[in-house]
Amino acid sequence: MSAEAGQAEQALDALIPIAHRIRDAINAVIVGKPESVKLTLTVLLAEGHALIEDVPGVGKTLLAKALARSIDCSVRRVQFTPDLLPSDITGVSAFNQELREFEFKPGPIFANLVLGDEINRASPKTQSALLECMEERQVTVDGSTYPLESPFMVIATQNPVEMEGTYPLPEAQRDRFTARISVGYPDAIAELAMLDAHGSASPLDDMKPAAHATDVRALIEAVRRVHVAPQVKRYIIDLVAATRTAPSLRLGASPRAALHLLRASRAYAALEDRNFVIPDDVQALAGPVLAHRLLPTAEAVVGRQQPEQVLEKIVGRVPLPGK
Question: Which domain range does residue 56 map to?
Fold first, then answer.
């Protein structure tokens, strides 16, 4: 092992307990959903953005708020509605009477964690205001560009079953989300524990930050140095390429999807207390990272074949590294 690799491993070992504290703090609020919590934390450490998509009432917004409360950083919430304007998100240039000049008034996007509640209720014009922010981590208003502070993460929620008054996210928007997270219904034991924990008061009220923004920045930097072998990188490329030739899909995964899968695999490995990625990490993340970017053909829609099912077959078909 080289000296640089040894230093990277030591840095990761020192910082991972912080990630576990954040995870444990969220698990105390989100009962019975450790995988959803782990995936959300994976997206944060991968410098990505999360789309929490599920039916109403399963805790999508609570999961996002619990992550925000677990870190001592700036948090802003945007309730997406049909009349929301792009400037309501990015900010505006307003004329200052005293200075006799225009000055920029930042919008809610200028925060470390931005919760976009029911994102598909805003018009496509307003949704597009997030494109530059999410990909380039900057905002351009009236010809001036303003950088966004790290860490920066957009956590958007939406209900897949509500079609009335909604605008489906365009492909370019969905492709910018690192992973789509489904919370799902809890089992009977977890739901009973939820009644005890949430029945009289919200656990969010007593939640204390488990880490600071500077800790998260250091974690992100350490995750970047998690080792990925050339064979594993090739495996990621093979998986992504297979989605582009699948007969049941009319739109496969993009090169950005491959990059997001690589970054998420590094973060997932770190949360498993490893400083190297294994194929199991890639397989565990293939569904959450790739499925929401895929579009089925008309024939697949008629046959009720979901992208998740197609992706599951692809993962089972693509040979593992070394085989």
Answer: 3-225
Boundary of a domain, candidates 194, 225, 256: 225
Same domain? 219 vs 234: no
On the question of pLDDT at 32 being above 80, the answer is: yes
Same domain, 221 and 231: no
Asked if residue 145 has pLDDT above 80, the reply is: yes
- φ and ψ of 169, to 5 deg: -65, 130
The structure's pTM equals 0.91
pLDDT at 154: 95
In the chain the first and final C-alpha atoms are separated, in Å, by 26
- Mean pLDDT, residues 193-217 taken together: 83
Q: What is the CATH number of the domain that holds 188?
A: 3.40.50.300
My answer on whether 31 and 157 are in the same domain is yes
User: Domain of 291: which CATH number?
Assistant: 1.10.8.80
Q: What is the pLDDT of residues 152-175, one digit of tens each?
A: 999 999 887 666 667 888 888 899
Q: Are residues 21 and 129 in the same domain?
A: yes
Residue 265 pLDDT class (50, 70, 90 cuts): very high
Q: Are 291 and 249 in contact (CB under 8 A)?
A: no
**Alpha-carbon distance values, 50 to 57, 102, 112, 153, 198 (Å):** 18, 35, 14, 8, 25
Q: Which of 295, 227, 293 is nearest to 262 (CA)?
A: 227
- Cα 144 to the chain's mean position, in Å? 27
The region that residue 31 occupies, defined by phi over 0 for left and psi between -120 and 50 for alpha, beta otherwise, is beta
Q: Are 49 and 155 in contact (CB under 8 A)?
A: yes
Question: What single-letter DSSP state applies at residue 149?
Answer: P
3-state secondary structure at position 294: coil
